[in-house]
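Title: [Solved] Macrolide ABC transporter ATP-binding protein 3D structure

Original question kept below for reference.
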Amino acid sequence: MISLTNIEKVYRTSTIETLALNNINLHIGQGEFASIMGPSGCGKSTLLNIIGLLDAPSKGSISVGGQPVTSYSDQEMARLRNQRLGFIFQSFHLINDLSVLDNVEIPLLYRKQISAAQRRQMAQEALERVGLSNRVKHFPKQLSGGQKQRVAIARAIVGRPEIILADEPTGNLDSVMGNEILSILQGLNNDGATIVMVTHDEAMAKKTHRLIRLFDGTMVGDTTLTLC
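Solution (posted by the thread starter after getting help):
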């Protein structure tokens, strides 16, 4: 589904050059639930951003569904992200002045073929999926951390993406809330979504299908996991 070939990412300033990713070759298959682990600063989030087409590699190529996308224009990349990818962030990135329902609708605003009534219906269905149908009129400041993350998941899945990318989705939550979020992700994966998750939590990672390890920007492990 997503293939990265000979990916290199270099960050440059006037005096310093930092190699963030070095010769990454990675294929994420349809229906996989893969986790990415490694110490802070090893390139996990950079890799996730490149998989999600939020950042461009310095070298190498990317394909999605067998289609090379490295040379896509910014507009083509944005359309692909909106139609096929969903993003979940550690810090939620909700808009405090918007209701829960309005926050979830945001990705659909860029799909001009979807009417306002359809957007509202799809957002309500996404919130029901994550157990928040009774919070549609609340605002983010009225929610717990776990509820905010569930809103963020609803926003990520409202457009029914094939691929969900999650950057430390349980990092700001206690273990109980973290397990609830992981359970939601597992349910989405069971329904066919491909998921790539960055995490520092070994126990969480071992509940996925595959564990990819990074160290200093290099892939040092890629293990298929046997789930109990």
